[in-house]
Design goal:
The complex is a heterodimer of chains A (344) and B (312).
Chain A lengths: L2 H20 L7 H9 L7 H36 L11 H16 L4 H23 L8 H24 L2 H12 L7 H20 L1 H7 L3 H6 L4 H23 L5 H13 L9 H25 L8 H19 L13
Helix pairs in contact in A: 1-2, 1-3, 1-13, 3-8, 3-11, 3-12, 3-13, 4-5, 4-6, 4-7, 5-6, 5-11, 8-11, 12-13, 12-14, 13-14
Chain B lengths: L2 H17 L13 E5 L5 E5 L5 E3 L2 H9 L6 E2 L20 E2 L1 E2 L2 E2 L1 H6 L4 E3 L6 H10 L2 E2 L8 H11 L3 H19 L9 E5 L6 E2 L5 H8 L31 E6 L4 H9 L1 H4 L2 H4 L3 E5 H4 L5 H14 L7
Parallel strand pairs in B: 3-4, 3-8, 4-5, 8-9, 10-12, 12-13
Antiparallel strand pairs in B: 1-2, 6-7, 10-11
The chains are: A mainly alpha (344), B alpha/beta (312).
């Protein structure tokens, strides 16, 4: 990825984050929010302080980190499964989290925000562990095809179990439906920091996997010859994906589509022009920035289109993302996974 | 249920019914008929004294119970598997014909009704299918005062006097409560919880009208026309739901929703919160299209919360 593209994307994220901080339903505008930032996150006006510190900043951080997490998870998944259509739905992450939340609701009738997040994260981790376990059963190597198939099987099982347990009770169905919509609005103050830390750890893990995964793109034998361990790299990547998208789904509900299109957009942006390859590292960096800016943009739109009300962020994400995807297809950008020829 | 599926069921039922023999609409057995005009301006032949009524909305159930008639079947309340809880014992043991807005035609047929109250159902095709089972009335228009719906239904089933007596009783109770000493000009806000933000009820909503009868005003945002609720409100604009009193309805028996909202800094700065005048209420009473019994229950809540210390 060219440094200039990277810089432009980083500036875009920064700009969107500042806009997100400065625009909302309340009276607080861009000048106040800039002053607030310059004064070290402090304002003498209690209302301004409350809106910026308690509502907008957590929301900006949440959108940014979840967008980054889903973007990174998308790249990891697409490269370990060698499937350009892979997103976190595929690894049983979303369906595992959904089943866990539904089970929690059926069991305890109602879940506190904290309990909901614990259930969702537990379900996401258990789901992906199960997929990885199934894919590597009987001591065979974890192959992309086995990962995809076991992911599909587990997702289908979880979905039907979720349907069974939620359709039984109308009240549970209601709560579950709200959860499944996905939302960034809830200021779970105490849960932001742990979430950010988990995502940070996941992103670090993803970065450290960039080299082995790039080598993996050349084929298992060649990457082994280069001194990497394909199976171990895949399992580590599955774990990173589970932490990244599990935390995202726990913080905001399942946000579909982003994990699929962010890597594409990153590749399209980075890979234009020359035939220079785009390694997994470049894709990761690009996809993290694209994911963060897309979710920031969708969240900004969610609070602006029906101001002072809130529109569902997932709907706006699809509305914004789909035209971008179509534009990319029309432009015939670099649609293959890598430019290095590892696919053929 | 999708229209296609409904149509499929209707067709199937039509075949079954026609196969049963010549005595087609089961209802015609129950005696003399008369012609009524329902809320959708349809002319319907209904039995003069219906005995087996099936109701498909919360308001219909409420109205019939207020007229001392027990329906043979009813749909559950919104977001629940049971009738609205404010109806208490009165609504127990009534056969369920399905969840809110999703009645099962087969269950309705099994109950052999001689009259169906279809709520505000706008779907003509669906009404035709119900009509194939028994005479079917659209019982109310969304946004009209409950008294109008009540009088219409009472007239259709031949109990207009009872409805008038009930309405008089309501008026008397409103007059009694209004006579109690209270601080002038207090405003009351009515809100339903949702995870994306609170939804406030609009100006023509049922509970707001009952409060207006008592002389309580709503905050400005909640005076906009409309019978339903606004979309989830941004937490930056929570002052739109602020008032002297704030009534929050929650459907699910979820104790965390209101507690979590109360704990948020944006909520704690509201006038109602600072004065300790936030009350949790039953959403299936305060934030739905309620009827006569619901109106009395809202009066009870207001008496309990706002006008408690004045003796009777």
């Amino acid at each position: 990825m060219k440094p200039t593209t990277f810089l432009v994307l980083a500036l875009l994220v920064l700009l969107l984050a500042l806009l997100s901080l400065g625009i909302g339903a309340g009276r607080v505008g861009v000048p106040e929010s800039l002053r607030w930032l310059l004064q070290g996150l402090h304002s003498d006006d209690a209302q301004t302080q409350m809106v910026l510190a308690e509502l907008r900043l957590p929301r900006v951080l949440k959108a940014m980190s979840i967008g980054a997490a889903l973007g990174a998870a998308g790249v990891l998944l697409q490269s370990i499964t060698r499937n350009p259509l892979a997103d976190s739905g595929l690894l049983g992450v979303n369906s595992g989290a959904a089943l866990a939340v539904a089970t929690g609701l059926a069991w305890q009738q109602a879940l506190s925000p904290f309990a909901q997040i614990v259930w969702a994260l537990g379900g996401a981790l258990a789901g992906s562990a199960l997929v990885a376990g199934l894919a590597s059963a009987r001591g065979r190597a974890v192959s992309p095809l086995r990962l995809v198939l076991s992911g599909l099987a587990l997702a289908a099982t979880c979905q039907s179990l979720t349907a069974l347990s939620t359709l039984g009770r109308q009240a549970n169905l209601d709560q579950y439906r709200f959860w499944v919509l996905g939302s960034l609005t809830h200021p779970h103050a105490g849960l932001l920091l742990p979430g950010l830390m988990l995502i940070g750890a996941g992103l670090l893990a993803a970065a450290s996997l960039a080299r082995p995964l790039s080598a993996l793109g050349l084929g298992d034998e060649l990457s082994q010859a280069l001194g990497h361990r394909p199976v171990r790299a895949r399992i580590a990547a599955v774990a990173a994906v589970a932490v990244l998208s599990g935390t995202a789904v726990a913080m905001a509900g399942p946000i579909a589509f982003l994990g699929l299109i962010a890597p594409y957009l990153a590749r399209a942006w980075a890979g234009t022009g020359v035939g220079v390859g785009v390694g997994v590292g470049g894709q990761l960096a690009g996809s993290i920035l694209v994911g963060a800016s897309l979710l920031l943009l969708a969240d900004l739109a969610a609070r602006l289109v029906v101001q002072p009300f809130e529109a569902p962020v997932t709907a706006l994400l699809a509305l914004l993302g789909a035209p971008l995807l179509i534009w990319m297809v029309r432009r015939d950008a670099l649609l293959s996974l890598t430019g290095m020829g590892g696919e053929r | 249920m999708s229209p296609v599926r409904r149509a499929g069921w209707g067709l199937l039922l039509g075949l079954l019914l026609s196969a049963c023999g010549p005595q087609e609409p089961a209802a015609s057995a129950s005696g003399p008929l008369r012609s009524v005009r329902d809320a959708a301006e349809r002319e319907v032949q209904v039995p003069v004294a219906p005995q087996r009524i099936v109701v498909l909305s919360e308001l219909d159930l409420d109205m019939l119970l207020a007229l001392d008639l027990r329906p043979v079947g009813a749909t559950s309340a919104r977001g629940s598997d049971r009738p609205p809880s404010y109806l208490g014992e009165r609504a127990s043991q009534i056969e369920s014909v399905g969840n809110f807005a999703q009645p099962g035609l087969d269950r309705i047929v099994m109950l052999r009704p001689d009259l169906i109250l279809a709520g505000s159902q706008p779907d003509r095709e669906w009404l035709e299918q119900l009509q194939g089972i028994a005479p079917t009335l659209v019982s109310f228009k969304v946004g009209e005062p409950w008294q109008d719906s009540f009088r219409r239904v009472a007239a259709a089933i031949g109990r207009p006097m009872q409805a008038q007596q009930f309405i008089d009783r309501y008026r008397q109770r409103v007059a009694d409560l209004s006579a109690r000493p209270r601080q002038a000009g207090q405003t009351v806000s009515i809100v339903r919880l949702s995870p994306n933000g609170p939804l406030y009820m609009l100006g023509d909503a049922f509970a707001g009208r009952v409060l207006a009868d008592l002389g309580f005003a709503r905050p400005p945002a909640q005076q906009q026309p409309g019978a339903g609720h606004a979309p989830p409100l941004s937490r930056e604009k929570l002052d739109d739901i602020d008032a002297d009193w704030l009534f929050i309805g929650n459907f699910t028996p979820d104790p965390h929703g209101v507690t979590a909202l109360r704990g948020e800094p944006a909520f704690a700065t509201l006038r109602a919160a600072r004065r300790g005048q936030v009350r949790e209420v039953d959403a299936s009473l305060w934030t739905v299209i309620g009827g006569p019994l619901a109106a009395l229950a809202v009066l009870d809540d207001v008496e309990r919360f706002i006008l408690p210390d004045a003796g009777r």
